[in-house]
Every structure is written in structure tokens, then in C-alpha cells.
Amino acid sequence: MRDPATLGDMTALRAEIDATDRRLSALLAHRQSLIDRAAEIKTGAGLPARIEARVEEVIANARSNAEAEGIDPELSETLWRALVDWSIRREETVLGQE
């Protein structure tokens, strides 16, 4: 990751944004594979897709991580709630709970 202060023009800045977006996509792909594995484990354990205490734990972690990184915790919560909701829908499909 390059320091934004070293990016002298919009071309360099946009290239760094695009590279960051590729890294984020790779991380999201990894998270999706973890969700798929969670669905497999939950199937065997008889667990539901949505476990409310875990949902709130993930959101609290997202807010805490955002604050530690200097990111708006409200933005982080909004993004993570969408991500968690999508993940639960994916698990529900695997578990036949949709």
C-alpha cells in the first residue's frame, strides 16, 4: 500500500484505489469461502444461519476495528450489516432455511 501523500496526480491515485479495490475483493472472496465453510459446519451441528449474539459481536468488532483505524464507525457498521445479512442469506440457502 502506498502512502496517499506520495501520490502526485489523479492517475497514480486512481491506480492505487484500483489496487486497493482488488485487495478488498480478494479479502471478500476469502470471507465468502469462510461463510461457505461455516454453513457446512452449521449443517452438521444443527445450527441456524442467524445467531443473533454472533451478529452483534461481529458488528461490535467492526465498529471497534473502524475506530482503531480512524474510520467512521457508522460507515463500518452499515457496511458490515450488509455483509453479514448477505452472508446469512448465503448460509440459509445452503441450510435450506431460505
CATH-level-2 architecture = Up-down Bundle
User: What is the third-level CATH name, the topology?
Assistant: Chorismate Mutase Domain, subunit A
Q: Please state roughly what percent of the residues sit in beta strands, choosing from under 5%, 5-15%, 15-25%, 25-35%, 35-45% or over 45%.
A: under 5%
Low-confidence stretches: none
Going by helix content, strand content and strand pairing, the class is mainly alpha
SSE pattern: HHH
Q: Helical element count?
A: 3
Largest sheet: none
Q: Please write the CATH class name.
A: Mainly Alpha
Q: Kindly state the number of beta strands.
A: 0
Overall 3D shape: elongated
Number of structurally distinct domains: 1
Helix-residue proportion:
over 70%
Average pLDDT confidence is: 95
CATH superfamily: Chorismate mutase
**What is the alpha-carbon Rg in Å?**
17 Å
Alpha carbon gap, first and last residue: 40 Å
Explain how this protein is built.
With about 100 residues, this protein is mostly helical. The chain has a single domain (about 5-95), classed as Chorismate mutase (Chorismate Mutase Domain, subunit A, Up-down Bundle), CATH 1.20.59.10. It has 3 helices and no strands. It has helices at about 10-45, 50-70, 75-95. Helix 1 (about 10-45) crosses helix 3 and helix 2 (about 50-70) runs antiparallel to helix 3. The N and C termini lie far apart (about 40 Å). Keywords: Isomerase.
